Structure formats: structure tokens, C-alpha cells
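Readers of this paper often ask what the protein records in our data store actually look like. The remainder of this section carries one protein's record, kept here as part of the documentation.

:::
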Amino acid sequence: MKWNTKLQAFFFHISYYATARTEELRSTLIQLITHQYIDSEYLDKPVLGMGVLDLYLFMRTARTSMMIHHCWSSTPIGVLLQMCIEDLALDSGLYGLLWNQEFNFSQWTVKHSIIFHACKFNHKHEIVIGVKHHSITKRRNNDRSIMAVASEHISKTSSLRAINRVRQFHNVVHLSDIAAADGRGLNHRFVAGTQFTGKRNDYKWPHKHHVSESDYTQWKIAMEYVFPLNLTLETPLGPWEPCIAEEWTKNWDWFVTEDKTFLYYRETATAWHRFLKNERLHKEYKTTYVVVDHPIESVLRAT
């Protein structure tokens, strides 16, 4: 069943059926729905008392109709549903609109969401809807979703769920979030066994999972697949996607000046720690620092 104008009209009428206040109106609407929108090959099959072919199908199509109506109309319920949609998009950790993603994310996401069950039904019946929402996109050339790469190499559901718990514990989505600034290898802070305290995005994450030692074990195994060459990438990440200066500085923590003289750590928007290069040691900086409002030099991301 493909998404088309006829099916859209079907959902429109089914939403009115779901809210009809009188039995007479409900009866009239269900006859209209049954005879106008359901293929004739099904009409000679046994149906329920009100002309509903299948209560399961009715409830799930009504759920989709309700979601479309409220999101397009921007009702208070629509705003809440939009939040639930974006929560599931973060939970899946995949790129693009939720409706266009492969449903294999069902292996690692939570399953008690109304949006999850709407996606499950629509995917089964090849229904694609047009509800827009904030979607995840790559941050750098050659960037990919962590869960997309992990699921290519790991098929066990319990392992994927463990990996996803740790990913959300760190609040990360992309390879670029967990890679070093040069885009070549893994930032080892993400396999230290503790929560990452830096910042990689402004997303409002839906929940925090309890992360066990076995979850970290699965995460570390996944990192060996994601960064297969001794925790480095086969294809290094390329240049960053264009964005405003405020965005890329507030979603990273360490920076270095172009001449490598100063190393900066961004504690807050107006409190930066500036470290001076140690002239005796070529690649090291002094441990003492001064606090400045912001760098006055041009800076690059660092690890």
C-alpha cells in the first residue's frame, strides 16, 4: 500500500470517524470509508459488525491519521507528538527523516513509544508520510552515523542495545563526535569507561540509560569495528560542513591556535582556559593556565 492522494483522504475520513460523537455518524462514516477507499477484492471477506475489516488495521491507520492531522495543524498535541518523533530520531541515531529510515533501528530503540508503533505499522505496509521534523545530518565529509556502522557489523539485538545506551550516555551521534579533531582515529576519552563530559551538540536527549560494565564492553568491541585499523578509520573524515562560528565553538571543547602557541579549553561561553606551549617539549603545553573571555586569535578544533 503506497502513500497517495486516495490513502491520504482515507486517513482524513478515518480521523473524523475516530472523533464522531454519535453512533449514527460513526455508522455513516465507516460505510463511506469501507466502500470508497478499500479495494473491492477485500469487500467480500468477513468483516466486523460496523464494517471494519480489521480492528488492528483501523487502530494503526487512525493513529497515523491523528499524528498527521495534529502535526500539520500545530496543535498542542501536535507539538507533543513532534517532540516524541524527534526523541525517537535521536534514539535511532540514523540520518534523515524517521519515515525514510530502515526499520532495523527497532533492534536498539525503545519500543513503548506511540511513534515507534506507528513507524512499525507504516513500514510493514509501505506507507510513507510527510510529517517534517528536525533530522540528523552529517557534520563532516565521510561522516556516518555511529549506529549505522555498528549495525553493519553487529547483528545481536542485546549488543546493539548496549551500544546505543552508551552512545546516548555520551550524547553522541556521528563518527565525527567521537573521532579526534584530525578525523583519523578514535578520541580515547570515549573508551575510558566514564561519561564524556564535553559537548558535541545542542540536542535535548530524551533520557539517560543506566550503563553497566558489560555495556561498555560491547561499546569497546563496536569501536574496533567502527575504527578498524588499530582504532583509526580506513577513510579519514574530511572537512567540516559549513556552520556559523558560534555553533562549532560551543559544540567542541579543545581548540588550538593556528601557530600552535596556545591551547584553549572552553569551559563556558565566556570562560576559556588558555595554556601556553611548553618550549622544552615540542607537543606539550604547560599545566597552568589563565582564564580569558574568549580567544582573540583564530583557532582550530583540537583533541
Remarks:
- The first strand starts at residue 254 and ends at 257.
- The chain has a mean pLDDT of 81.
- The first helix runs from residue 5 to 19.
